[in-house]
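Two proteins, back to back. First:
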Amino acid sequence: QAYLSYSNIAALTHLASKPGWDITKTLDNVRIWTHEEGAVLSFKVEMQVKVPSHVAFSLLSDFSLRQHWDRHFLTCKLLQAVSEEEKIYHVTSAPLTGHQPRDFVVLVSQRQPCRPQEPYTVAVRSVTLRMVPPSPEFCRSEILCAGFQIHSNSSSSCTVCYFNQVTSGVMPYLAANLTGSSKSIEDTALECIKFLE
């Protein structure tokens, strides 16, 4: 468990620090970036939020609150609190036209910054739990690496960056989006800002 949690945080930190991000969209307080490497597509959504970074961190690290702003989350159930900083959740997502509803078993690792210039981190990856085997009513999907980095801008504002390394399981939700025919990433980002503020 210690290794999984360390590699969860390390994978997100590594993804965030990669060079070669391309900006694809800019709105007032949301910017969307993509990064392609072989068959792996990653995206980053950067949001300017008018709340202190520690407030954004406490709201985003509690995954049971995610349904309040992310309409892709149908249900989110806490399965196991491994420690203060590590929790395992079972998430189900709404079916897309022509697709079976999906479910995920994820480890959410949260870290406060060790030094003032470091961000707060909430890292997410899929794990396997014997107590939640795949069920015929859902298509079990995998999150390789996703999560948030929250950088403090001032005592009352912060920059929230959401990252996701896209697998085929998440792809249907994003394909229409990144080609510009759907606004789901933007809409979700704006809902997230509204929820945090």
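And the second protein:
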Amino acid sequence: DSGNIKAGLEHLTPAEQAKARLQLVLEAAAKADEALKAKERSEEEAKKRKEEDQATLVEQVKRVKEIEAIESDSFVPQTFRSSKEVKKSVEPTELQHEPVTVGAGTVDASAPEKEPPPANIPTAIKYQDDNSLAHPNLFIEKAEAEEKWFQRLIALRQERLMGSPVA
């Protein structure tokens, strides 16, 4: 290549020859830089693959240990419970309310009978057979709705404090 370069540069002035040589050097440096970057990228990819392989190896070891633990005699199988089943089982227990007692076993007569417990708040719209558009319980006083909401909030917070998962 050097013979071809000299032959190509003979007809140029010394300044033009220097400029052409500088251009060739810059092009060679750029090619060398690209080669180094490609090499670095391939090394990084190899490191990543190695780390992933190690991570999968760790996961495989963990999985094997978990399988061995399940197969051992000390493993106690438990039934699977979905979060939906837990919610369903919590709601019926909320419906059971005992009367409030004051003093020596007397029932508090000041509590209004018309006020349902917070768990009895309708959660779905139920349409009636007549020609009305919506359930009449949807149309309640604002103060009454806020009180029911407040009671429900207190009940949910108490459940949460007792360790029940509340969504």
